[in-house]
Specification:
Chains A, B: It comes from Kiloniella laminariae. Chains A, B: Keywords: DNA-binding, Transcription, Transcription regulation. The structure is a homodimer. The first copy, chain A, folds into 2 domains: 63 residues, Winged helix-like DNA-binding domain superfamily/Winged helix DNA-binding domain (Arc Repressor Mutant, subunit A), CATH 1.10.10.10; 138 residues, GntR ligand-binding domain-like (Four Helix Bundle (Hemerythrin (Met), subunit A), Up-down Bundle), CATH 1.20.120.530. The two termini of chain A are 24 Å apart. The longest helix of chain A has 28 residues. In chain A, strands 1-3-2 form a 3-stranded antiparallel sheet. Chain A is 69% helix and 4% strand. By secondary structure, chain A is mainly alpha-helical. At the A-B interface, helix 3, helix 4 and helix 7 of A face helix 3, helix 4 and helix 7 of B. The structure holds a DNA duplex.
DNA sequence: ATTATTAATATTGGATACAATAATAAAAAT
DNA sequence: ATTTTTATTATTGTATCCAATATTAATAAT
C-alpha cells in the first residue's frame, strides 16, 4: 500500500520548509502513525505539505541520516524497518553514551534541575502509554543537560528517538512503566546524594534491562 | 575569502552524485585542504563538480549530519570550526563507543583479522604524518568489524573523521605516532590472548590519553 | 503454460528558472 | 560625521521541466 493521502497540512511558508517537513514526519514515524516499511512517495508527501517535491527530498535526506528512513538511489524511500535484533545495539549505545553524560553532569547538577526531573517523573507516573516515550526522554535529558557536551546530547537524543519507535510497537504494559518509574526514583536519589558512581551504575542497569525487556517482549510478539 | 576555484572534477554520472560529492568534500575537509571556517558556496561547488547546485545541497546536508559542516538556513554552509574544547568530548565518545565495539568483537575475532590489523599497524609504523590518520582508523576498524553492529560502527567512523581533523592541524610529532604504535602493539597482544577485559582497558586508556595529548598540544599552539 | 523480450508507465534524480531572504552599497536624514 | 533608510546585489530556497532509472504490462518465443 502507498501512503493514504491524509489531510493536507499547510506549513510555514518561510525559510527552510525541509526542516519543518522533517519534523512532522519524524513525529509521525516515531509515534508509529506512519508504520515501518511504508513507502514514502515524494509526490504524495508534496501534496500533503502543499509544496513541491524539492523540500520533501531534503526532508527525506535528513530523516535518512537519523536512521528513521531508508533511502535507496532511484528506488525511493521507505520508513526504516525495525529489526528486533537491532534493539540491543541501540540500548547498548544508549547505556554507554548516557552514563558518560551523567558522569559529567552530576557534579554540575543543581537542586532545581533535580526538582525539575522529579516533576517530570511524577507526571510520567500518571501518564499513559502515549506520553511515556516523550516524558521518559525529557526526564533523562534533564539530568544530562548540565554535562555541557552538545554533541553527546544530540547523539543521545537521536538514540532516544530510535528507541521510542520500538516502545510504540511493543505495546508495553503498565508493568514496564511502573518498573521504569521505580528505577527513576532510585536514580534521582543517587543524583540527589551526588553519588556519581552509584547513579551511573543504576543508569546503566536501568537502560540495559529496559532494552532486554523490550527485546524479549518484541521477540515473543513476532513469533506469536 | 571564498573557495578558490580548484580543478573541475568530473564525477560518475550515475545514481546519486550527492554521495560522491560528499565523499570528496569529506576527505578535503578532514585533510584540512579546505580549512575550518571556509564558506562553501553552492555555486562554486557545483562548478567544481560539474553539476547543478542540487546534488551539492544534498551533499552538504550529509556532511552537516556528520558534524563536518555547519548549515544555517538561508545563510549557507561553512566548514565546521574546530573548537579545542570539543576534542575531549569527541575522544570521550570514541572511548565508550569503541570499548563497547571491541568488547563484542573479541569473542568473534579470527586470527586472520588480527593478522590484518597487525599488517596495518606495521604499515603505519613507517608511514608519515600524512597517512597516519587513515591508517589509524583502518587499524581500529579492523578490530571492531566482527562485533556485527552496523550502527555502532558507523557512529565510530564519524567520530574518527572528526578526530582526524584535529590531528591534521595539530601537526603531531613522531613521538605521538611512536607512542600510538606501541599501544597498538599491546592492544593486539591482548586481542590475540582473547583477554577482553585487558584489551578494553588498554583501548580506553589509549583513546583517552591520545585525546589529552592532542588537547594540550592544540591548547599550547593556540596561546603561543 | 512459462519464460524471455520488448514496450509503456511511474518515479526518482538533476538542471534550469524563479522567488525569497540576507548581505552589501548607496543615499538621505539627523 | 554618524546613523538610518533605501536600493542593489549576491545567495539560498522552491518550483517546474527534462532525463535517467526502475517497475509494470504486454508481447513474443520456446
Amino acid at each position: 500500500m502507498t501512503d493514504k493521502a491524509p489531510k493536507p497540512t499547510k506549513i510555514s511558508r518561510s525559510g527552510a520548509q525541509a526542516n519543518e517537513i522533517a519534523r512532522l514526519l519524524r513525529t509521525d514515524i516515531i509515534s508509529g502513525e506512519i508504520p515501518q516499511g511504508e513507502i514514502l512517495r515524494q509526490e504524495n508527501l508534496a501534496q500533503r505539505f502543499q509544496t513541491s517535491r524539492m523540500p520533501v527530498r531534503d526532508a527525506l535526506r535528513i530523516l535518512e541520516q537519523e536512521g528513521l528512513v531508508d533511502l535507496q538511489p532511484n528506488r525511493g524511500a521507505q520508513v526504516a524497518i525495525l529489526d528486533v535484533e537491532g534493539i540491543r545495539e541501540i540500548y547498548e549505545m544508549r547505556a554507554v553514551a548516557e552514563v558518560l553524560a551523567l558522569r559529567h553532569a552530576i557534579p554540575e547538577l543543581t537542586n532545581s534541575q533535580i526538582e525539575k526531573a522529579e516533576k517530570i517523573r511524577s507526571e510520567a507516573e500518571s501518564a499513559g502509554l502515549e506520553q511515556f516515550g516523550v516524558l521518559n526522554k525529557a526526564f533523562h535529558e534533564t539530568l544530562y543537560a548540565p554535562c555541557a557536551r552538545p554533541r553527546l546530547l544530540s547523539h543521545i537524543s537521536s538514540l532516544h528517538d530510535l528507541a521510542d519507535r520500538y516502545l510504540r510497537i511493543a505495546a508495553i504494559e503498565l508493568d514496564y512503566i511502573d518498573r521504569s518509574n521505580q528505577e527513576h526514583c532510585q536514580l534521582l536519589a543517587a543524583c540527589n546524594a551526588r553519588d556519581t558512581l552509584k547513579a551511573c551504575k543504576l543508569l546503566d542497569q536501568h537502560i540495559i534491562s529496559a532494552g532486554e525487556k523490550l527485546f524479549t517482549r518484541l521477540k515473543e510478539a513476532s513469533t506469536r
